[in-house]
Design goal:
By secondary structure, the protein is an alpha+beta fold. A hairpin with a 6-residue loop joins strand 1 (about 90) and strand 2. The chain has helices at about 5-30, 45-50, 55-65, 210-215; strands at about 90, 95, 105, 110-115, 120-130, 135, 150-170, 190-195, 235-245, 255-260, 275-280. Strands 4, 5, 6, 7 and 9 form a five-stranded antiparallel beta sheet that branches. Strands 3-11-10-8 form a four-stranded mixed beta sheet, with no helix packed on it.
């Protein structure tokens, strides 16, 4: 069998190869045909153009121009009004000067103070505190006797308290309107009197039953509702200090103080709470 190609087939094969080579060369030169896995290299000019400084500046300018020019401003709240601590009140049409904070008064001398009720009124009082009186431990009835195992005795600081009248509390809030006070059902808010040690710090005290521990008679006790208060009547109350066994004298009650009512205008608004009025 003749295995040698004929001249005609050889020529056809050479022609086919030549034609294929011509097609490949032509395609490569024109760059119009891309095959998978081979991508033309990106243009260096295109990359440079994206990062030119002048175009970055234009972008910043565009960003600034897109910011809203009428952005809402945060509204500042007005400062709270300065509320002064009252120095004079006018119950029943009479001028009454209130005792200044921090005043130290001898026992038996009066001070004029005020308290705030729940009906928007200030109750005005005259107080005369008296020196402490020794009260034996067994004379005081306790709700929790087991907590008083170290108690030696008590001191009662009785004080006379006279109701001078009531005035409408000044209102600084424009959102508040005053109504007619219900004095029939409103509880009396008496001044807060607490035993204090020699430098005025609050001492250990009895809470509840102080009037009974001091022996205040029922006829002299404060009424429970404002409608029962009598102007000018000398009521009486008591503040009781607790003395523990072995307690140092400087740590026990030796005076009595009036603590300012936080419902009085100017008390809570002050940078510091007004100093108590003290008897000793």
């Amino acid at each position: 069998m003749n295995t040698c190609p004929s001249r005609r087939s050889t020529a056809r094969s050479l022609g086919t190869v030549g034609l294929a080579l011509a097609v490949v060369l032509s395609t490569t030169a024109c760059g119009e045909v891309e095959t998978e896995g081979f991508r033309p290299k990106p243009s260096t000019l295109a990359l440079t153009k994206k990062t030119e400084p002048d175009e970055v500046e234009d972008f910043d300018a565009l960003s600034e121009s897109e910011e809203p020019s009428d952005a809402p401003q945060i509204e500042q709240s007005p400062p709270p009004p300065v509320v002064p601590l009252p120095t004079f009140l006018y119950p029943n049409g009479f001028e009454v000067a209130l005792t200044a904070p921090g005043t130290v008064i001898p026992f038996g001398e009066p001070a004029t103070v005020a308290t705030s009720d729940t009906e928007g009124r200030l109750l005005v009082w005259s107080i005369v505190a008296h020196d402490g009186v020794f009260v034996p431990r067994e004379n005081v009835e306790l709700l929790e006797p087991e907590r008083a195992v170290n108690v030696s005795h008590f001191f009662c600081y009785a004080y006379d308290i006279t109701f001078l009248g009531a005035v409408s509390k000044p209102i600084y809030d424009p959102m508040v309107l005053k109504g007619v006070p219900d004095v029939v059902n409103t509880a009396v808010t008496p001044p807060t009197m607490v035993p204090a040690n020699f430098d005025g710090a609050v001492a250990k005290s009895l809470v509840g039953g102080a009037d009974n521990a001091c022996g205040i008679p029922d006829i002299s006790k404060l009424p429970t509702t404002e409608s029962m208060l009598e102007v000018g009547y000398p009521y009486a109350r008591g503040a009781v200090g607790v003395v523990d066994t072995g307690a140092a004298p400087e740590d026990t009650a030796s005076s009595v103080s009036y603590e300012f009512d936080e419902g009085i205008p100017g008390v809570t608004e002050a940078p510091l709470k007004p100093a108590p009025i003290r008897w000793n």
